[in-house]
Amino acid sequence: MLKTILAISGKPGLYKLVSNGRNMLIVESLATGKRTPAYSHDKIVSLGDIAIYTTDEDVPLSQVFDAIKVKNDCKTVDMSSFADDHSLRAYFKEILPDFDDERVYTNDIRKVFNWYNLLVGAGITEFVDAEGQDAEEAPAE
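Request: output the structure for the sequence above.
Response:
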């Protein structure tokens, strides 16, 4: 599911891939629904390709979003409830206890929560499909 949701450097928010054009992608903002082109020189990252550093092995962002969803009963995270960076990191530790304190920055945690809130606000609450893998990774017959 997250393979078609994109983060574009220099543009706020998240975007859904609509179609491929010549040397560009047509994307739709999850917040506004406005369609715009994203060109090949833009740094575009699929949320399905992002993982969070842990002390063992990296955890895919879809699993982190799923853990946030369970912790918050499918509701958004109230970012204003965190008094400081320490309380934000402590809350993230409840969600992902073994995240790497040295390699995961507070700004990264804020971005994860903001992305989660954008996805939930857009009605996207299924982050991992039933088999726990993306449809593109399903074995071919």
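Residues 80 and 128 are 27 Å apart (CA to CA).
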